[in-house]
What does this fold into?
Amino acid sequence: MIPIQTPAGTFKVWTKRFGTNPKIKILLLHGGPAMTHEYMECFETFFQREGFEFYEYDQLGSYYSDQPTDSTLWKTERFVEEVEQVRKAIGADSSNFYIIGNSWGGILGMEYALKYQ
It folds into this structure.
């Protein structure tokens, strides 16, 4: 569980790490918002076989993560900041951080890349 600072307080998001690779850290961004990481578990077999370090992750409001009821938190910009906080918590930087997103997760990944390059 990674603590996330938001305008409405501190909440925790769930992550699960697979592998150890200081050169490749992949964060999987699920769809939704409010879907779960579960359909991205398909990456476990072949990413581990390739030796990648990767993280399954439930965004705030999803499955294993905290589920606050404050509707002001459901803004793209706030989710982008959440991804940045998760990136820092997993020890990734511009030399080794990769995002794979699907549906809403793809939009979130693009918004993150536009802000943080």
User: Anything to note?
Assistant: The longest strand covers residues 9-18. The chain has a mean pLDDT of 96. Residues 40 and 52 are 15 Å apart (CA to CA).
